[in-house]
């Protein structure tokens, strides 16, 4: 029996911390019980069994969701995946993909993690009415189609994670450049919003995906916006099912014994990668970058350049040529954006890679609001929902 309906990352893939930043292997602290009837109800929930016997048809993820449902919680697939991995460790299960009827599952650690999220769930449920109009504003701006109301107890990450975020070069305005100077990531934010609108990332997983990318950027020393630009070229912006029949997924893990799919454990069946979510594929990106390295400039004191980051995926050996306009030995037909003058008969150089990635990002993100515009839409939606008969907010300049 598998822990997921699709596939978990291969052995050795790192598990990220949950949304609150704590390591998933550490049981969350249990918040104090509030007074009154609600506190008594919570106390009864916490007095559930400390263990559970695996029944036929169970998976670890189904058990996690069952325990969450008993607390009135709705958890994202990414959260369920992390907690299922932790449940396997707590229960002494060596292979979380294989569980059998009669096995004993230790639930204490899972209960502690779920209890730590109860307060957030209550806030989430109370704010769901506000999340619907905000999500509709964004969905309509991106696709012309209104967003469906969120599930009970789930809030829209489009609103929760909308933070001012390096993109004068990606169709942005002066406010975008200011956001970049302040340490934001506007290209990443736009790319994530676009991916949600296109259905590449479930809205409820947007925050988890963003947090994982920021962690990868810190670990491997690259700019989050550059990672977004790379995925816009490789997979139309984090489409987990992108494939050219030889290469697959968000950064295109390619077939072959010495290629990307093999380096992350999928040499035998690379197309299995297409069954993984964006969040799960980011675990493979982490493993791949750990193997090939991402070349950083200035003796490792500065983040890797955009061209080095992209060459780490496209052709790591080509990173040895540091001349900006020297032809690189990159075989095969590549996207015309990557060639000098966007001419496939011309060579590929570091400078043409930089130009092509920027131009491609500009064109793909042009219809999508900047982080500044997105926040204005969210504020306006909330204001009009609370005070429908009041005049609209004045425009910010």
Notes on the protein architecture:
46% of the residues lie in helices and 3% in strands. It has 397 residues and is mostly helical. A hairpin with a 4-residue loop joins strand 3 and strand 4. The chain folds into two domains: 1-116, no CATH class; 199-365, Lysozyme. The longest helix is centred in the first third of the chain and has 26 residues, at 118-143. The N and C termini lie far apart (56 Å). A two-stranded antiparallel sheet has the order 1-2. A two-stranded antiparallel ribbon has the order 3-4.
The CATH topology of the largest domain turns out to be: Lysozyme
Number of distinct beta strands: 4
- Based on CA atoms alone, the radius of gyration comes out at 23 Å
Order of helices and strands: HEHHEHHHHHHHEEHHHHH
| Helical content class | 40-55%
In terms of quaternary structure, what is this?
Answer: single chain
The shape, in one word, is elongated
**Low-confidence spans:** 1-31, 119-175, 380-397
**Number of helices, where a helix is a run of at least 4 consecutive DSSP H or I residues:** 15
Structural class: mainly alpha
Arrangement of strands in the largest sheet:
1-2
CATH architecture of the largest domain: Orthogonal Bundle
The domain tally reads 2
Average pLDDT taken over every residue? 73
What's the CATH C level of the largest domain? Mainly Alpha
Q: Estimate the strand proportion.
A: under 5%
């Amino acid at each position: 029996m598998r822990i997921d309906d699709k596939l978990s990352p291969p052995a050795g893939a790192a598990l990220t911390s949950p949304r609150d930043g704590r390591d998933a292997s550490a049981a969350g602290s249990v918040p104090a019980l509030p007074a009154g009837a609600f506190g008594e109800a919570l106390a009864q929930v916490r007095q559930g069994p400390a263990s559970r016997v695996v029944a036929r048809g169970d998976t670890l993820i189904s058990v996690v969701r069952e325990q969450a449902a008993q607390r009135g919680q709705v958890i994202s697939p990414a959260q369920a995946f992390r907690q299922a991995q932790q449940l396997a460790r707590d229960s002494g299960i060596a292979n979380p993909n294989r569980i059998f009827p009669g096995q004993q599952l230790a639930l204490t650690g899972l209960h502690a993690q779920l209890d730590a999220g109860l307060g957030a769930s209550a806030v989430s449920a109370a704010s769901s009415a506000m999340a619907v109009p905000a999500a509709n504003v964004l969905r309509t701006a991106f696709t012309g189609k209104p967003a469906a109301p969120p599930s009970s107890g789930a809030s829209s990450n489009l609103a929760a994670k909308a933070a001012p975020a390096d993109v004068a070069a990606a169709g942005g305005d002066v406010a975008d450049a200011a956001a970049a100077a302040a340490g934001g990531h506007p290209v990443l934010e736009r790319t994530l919003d676009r991916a949600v609108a296109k259905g590449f990332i479930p809205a409820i997983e947007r925050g988890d995906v963003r947090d994982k990318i920021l962690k990868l950027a810190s670990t491997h020393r690259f700019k989050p916006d550059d990672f977004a630009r790379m995925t816009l070229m490789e997979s139309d912006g984090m489409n987990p099912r992108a494939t050219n029949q030889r290469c697959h997924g968000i950064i295109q893990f390619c077939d072959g014994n010495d290629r990307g799919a093999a380096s992350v454990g999928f040499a035998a069946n690379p197309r299995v990668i297409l069954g993984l979510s964006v969040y799960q594929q980011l675990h493979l990106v982490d493993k791949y970058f750990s193997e090939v390295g991402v070349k950083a400039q200035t003796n490792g004191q500065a983040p890797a350049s955009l061209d080095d980051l992209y060459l780490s995926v496209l052709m790591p050996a080509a990173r040895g040529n540091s001349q900006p306009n020297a032809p690189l030995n990159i075989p095969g037909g590549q996207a015309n954006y990557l060639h000098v003058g966007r001419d496939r008969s011309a060579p590929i150089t570091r400078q043409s890679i930089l130009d092509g990635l920027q131009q491609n990002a500009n064109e793909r993100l042009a219809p999508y609001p900047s982080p500044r515009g997105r926040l204005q839409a969210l504020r306006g939606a909330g204001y009009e929902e609370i005070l429908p008969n009041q005049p609209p907010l004045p425009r910010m300049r």
